[in-house]
Amino acid sequence: MPKKIENVGCPYCGVCCDDLVVTVSDDGRHVLEVENACAIGNEIFHHASGDNRIKLPRLRQPDGTYKDISYDEAVDYAAKVLVKAKKPLIYGFGSTNCEGMAAAAKVAEKAGAVLDNCASICHGSSFLAIFDNGYPSCTLGETKNRADVIVYWGSNPAHAHPRHMSRYSIFPRGFFTGKGHKGRKIIVIDPRYTDTARVADIYVQVKQGQDYDLFNAFRTVIHGEDIPDEVAGVKKEQILEVADILKKARFGTIFYGMGLCHSDGRNHNVDIAISMTRDLNDFTKWTIMAMRGHYNIAGPGVVWAWTTGYPYCIDMSKKDHAYMNPGETSSIDLAMRDEVDAFFNIGTDAGAHFPIEAVKHLKKHPWITIDPNICMASEIADLHIPVGIVGVEVPGIVYRMDNVPIQYRQVLNPPEGVISDEELFERIHQRICEIEAEEGITQTGAAAADTQKSIVGE
Predict the structure, then answer these.
(1) Maximum distance among all Cα pairs of the chain, rounded to whole angstroms
(2) What phi and psi values does residue 80 have, to the nearest 5 degrees?
(3) Best label site of 9, 150, 184, 274, fewest CB within 10 Å?
(4) Strand pairing partners for 33?
(5) Torsion angle, CA of 22/25/31/35, rounded to 10 degrees?
(6) Which residues contact 280 (CB under 8 A, 6 or more apart)?
(7) Residue 289 pairs with which residues in a beta bridge?
């Protein structure tokens, strides 16, 4: 008899919808129906029981074809690559659980690797601004229950986070927001007239790359000073109108996306957005939140900050200490300077998202992709290791975009023999230890590491 599982988390975007209802077949191997999910989340669940899953690691052969190998052989290959490399890069982690991230950090420390995540090419600039200026944020639940003014700046949740508006920002009725969307004012600020702008009360079309100027204008008006007749393509009258709404809000939240942190100004745009949020708190209550993309891309920032002291771009190649310096230790910069001699792509697609020159440099060296799915990164890899899909076949902790941890559930059994990211990294770590013992490795760095406190987990 089919089994209906409630309160299931969705392994798609940073909203981490945890109200899904999934019906699975009586043998626990097929998803029959998914309720409450968006179209993309729905597809992820049904893909898990599709016929095109890769069920064994695939190793590239001299003629360019792939050959299926066992997990033991794949673990041995990966461990030997890490032992041989002087500066391996372990990157990705948008689509795995925190348990897998912690296990990967152990491997990175043991191998003397650089550990980085997708924030390096998306919200890394937000991290820099938050380091400098703080983060006056809240939970999505607080926004749902309290916010009467919502600002989307440089983000389009109608496409990227399909249920964000219905669960937390525009449409839901909260404890103090019983009228739902009728009691809220929605402002969208974006160079493009997006589908999110279509449901806004006010659309502000800022000129591309001039977000910082517009923030400055808002701050000037909020402080009671005059501004020019037009700033960043926006008329003075509209700036005054929006500033008045912001100051009179009972509770407001600014949701910003990569349209802000990746346009001209980057981290400085986020920095001044935080400063404006602080200014508004002289008058009322305002908060700000980054629209994180992958469902657990907030996870590595939390897990690795606990274990190494840094959220991303963590260089452990010296083996006795860790440090981060975006621009020096970030993945794209390392690849463009051809400083990496082995590349691990975990739960993301560097083949599709990295600049082509970076990919060309990385492809000179061993490239290993760990991912349940076929993607560009898997198709150019020397070794592709399939793993279970977190949130569908593997349970675990994920962090929502507001940094709230959520326990994800397993609803399907993984294909026979397929293991989780966590088990894979634990086995690679064990194999590295065995190889080093067999070869009596006594490099200066390794010896230093034995005499120093562990970077990870201390």
Answers:
(1) 74
(2) -65, -35
(3) 184
(4) 23
(5) -30
(6) 222, 246, 247, 249, 252, 286
(7) 255
CA–CA separation, 402 and 139 (whole Å)? 5
Domains and CATH numbers, the chain: 3-49 (no CATH), 58-122+295-439 (3.40.50.740), 124-290 (3.40.228.10)
Determine the Cα–Cα distance for residues 276 and 58; give it in Å rounded to an integer. 51
| Angle at the Cα of 151 from the Cα atoms of 148 and 157, rounded to 5 degrees | 110
Inter-residue contact 53 to 386 (CB < 8 Å): yes
21 DSSP β-pair partners: 35
Residue 203 main-chain phi, psi, to 5 deg: -115, 125
Residue pLDDT, tens place only, 102-153: 999 999 999 999 999 999 999 999 999 999 999 999 999 999 999 999 999 9
CA dist., res. 153 & res. 44, Å (int): 28
Give the three-class secondary structure for 283: coil
Spatial contact of 313 and 120, defined as CB atoms under 8 Å apart: yes
Whether 153 and 253 have beta carbons less than 8 Å apart is answered as no
Task: List, for residues 348-379, the tens digit of each pLDDT value.
Answer: 999 999 999 999 999 999 999 999 999 999 99
The radius of gyration of the chain from alpha carbons, rounded to an integer in Å, stands at 23
pLDDT digits (tens, 9 = 90+) for 245-271: 999 999 999 999 999 999 999 999 999
Cβ contact 100:390 at 8 Å: yes
- Do 369 and 384 form a contact (C-beta atoms < 8 A)? yes
Residue, of 152 and 320, whose pLDDT is higher = 152
Residue among 418, 446, 333, 352 at smallest CA distance from 94: 352
Calpha distance 215→278 (Å, rounded): 12
| pLDDT class of 441 with cuts at 50, 70, 90 | low
Question: Each residue of 394-420: pLDDT tens digit?
Answer: 999 999 999 999 999 999 999 999 999
Q: What are phi and psi of 259, to 5 degrees?
A: -65, -20
- The rounded distance, in Å, linking the Cα atoms of 299 and 443 is 33
In this predicted structure, what is the pLDDT of residue 52?
Answer: 84
CB 281 within 8 A of CB 382: no
Length of the chain equals 458
Tokens of 132: 């400098």
Cα separation, 230 vs 237, whole angstroms: 9
CA 257 from centre of chain:
12
Name 38's Cβ contacts closer than 8 Å, sequence gap at least 6.
10, 12, 17, 162, 163
Give dist(CA 80, CA 428) in Å, integer. Answer: 9
- Alpha carbons within 13 angstroms on the beta-carbon side of residue 210 total 15
Q: What is the rounded end-to-end Cα distance, in angstroms, of the chain?
A: 48
